[in-house]
Amino acid sequence: MTITATGHSYVDVASGARLDAWYPTEGVDPVRSCLVEQLGLIKGEVVTTTIDPDSPPVDAADAYLRLHMLSRREVKPNEINVDGIFGHLNNVAWTTAGPCSPDQVDALRAAAGAKGEHVQVTGLDKFPRMTDYVIPSGVRIADADRVRMGAYLAEGTTVMHEGFINFNGGTLGPAMVEGRISQGVVVGANSDIGGGASIQGTLSGGGTEKLFIGENCLLGANAGIGISLGDGCTVEAGLYVTAGTIVTLPDGEKVKAKAISGRPGLLFIRNSTSGVVEVRESDPARWGGINEALHAN
Ligand SMILES: CC(C)(COP(=O)(O)OP(=O)(O)OC[C@H]1O[C@@H](n2cnc3c(N)ncnc32)[C@H](O)[C@@H]1OP(=O)(O)O)[C@@H](O)C(=O)NCCC(=O)NCCS
Q1: 31-65 burial, b for 16+ CB within 10 Å, e for fewer?
Q2: I need a surface site. Which of 45, 129, 228, 241 has the fewest CB within 10 A?
């Protein structure tokens, strides 16, 4: 099965590099204009792109269509092939005047300045912010820089300033994100990723297994997790559990945390007297779930 879409793409005039592609929702014309284009540094063109979602991306226009499909919630993370996507994306200076090749930023400043326009560079990256291309319904994002194009935010998701969601990662239901969701990681409904918490990804170091966090989980502030969590799990604030962390089960058995990856209903807590990481049965009544009033969208 292939998918075809028509979009609008900006290309660097000097090098011919494709800087981005925007695929508007149905009924909206693929037309854009920006100052960088008016100053002659980039040119806009209409692209019609056909992709095979099961095969790796083949070029930048293809890569952008996949990222749009993820952010538009047309496919969930890990349901579309994004292997090698970095290699097809150019590093871009994302500016308030439009996308620009990084080596053209000085020329842009000078030309824009001559017209009394001040240009800000909001990022130098292969991926833009999601919100410059896709606005999913029913979500809150306190700082748009923290959500990369290709992130998947289910209806009812709130991403606070410290939260971060990478491409091909996200939330499958209403969730509170104040920590970091890595590429390939999904978080279930009614879970809370506490301030500064981290969930290990697979892009550098670490393992190759893509992690998930189940429903009704609480990853405490500054906690970290290198295994998957089943539904109804809690990790104590500040506790980092990697796959190799030796944990003590309720019956006293000691195992590597990866042995219980994905098991539901557990509380991970570091005994503050002995330093031992204990796994207890979690009491769902102790944590009342995400704060409905605070998290309503
Ligand atoms: C792990 C956690 C969930 C435990 O909370 P709790 O279940 O409400 O437990 P309590 O703090 O009431 O403690 C229960 C018992 O365990 C003990 N206990 C708690 N933490 C302990 C620790 N690290 N080591 C040893 N004992 C501990 C308490 O002293 C208490 O003992 P008691 O029953 O004899 O009085 C909580 O400490 C935590 O880290 N919450 C995360 C909150 C958070 O970060 N939210 C996100 C905000 S952005």
Answers
A1: eeebbbbebebbebeebebebebeeebeebbbbbb
A2: 45
Q: Cα–Cα–Cα angle for 284, 290, 293, nearest 5°?
A: 135
Please determine, for residue 24, whether its predicted confidence score (pLDDT) is greater than 90: yes
95-153 confidence digits (pLDDT tens): 999 999 999 999 999 999 999 999 999 999 999 999 999 999 999 999 999 999 999 99
> Which of 190, 119, 107, 135 is closest to 22 using CA atoms?
135
Counting atoms of ligand 1 from 1, which one is nearest the CA of 283?
7
Collapsing DSSP to helix, strand or coil, 296 comes out as: coil
**pLDDT above 70 coverage of the chain, percent:** 94
Q: Is 178 a catalytic residue?
A: yes
Say what the pLDDT of residue 206 is: 60
Burial of 222 (0-12, 13-18, 19+ CB in 10 A): middle
| Tens digits of residue pLDDT in 193-214 | 999 999 988 766 566 778 999 9
Closest atom of ligand 1 to CA, residue 272: 24
Predicted confidence at residue 202, as pLDDT, reads: 73
Looking up tokens 């959500």, which residue turns up?
A: 147
| Full set of structural domains in the chain with CATH | 3-125 (3.30.70), 130-295 (2.160.10.10)
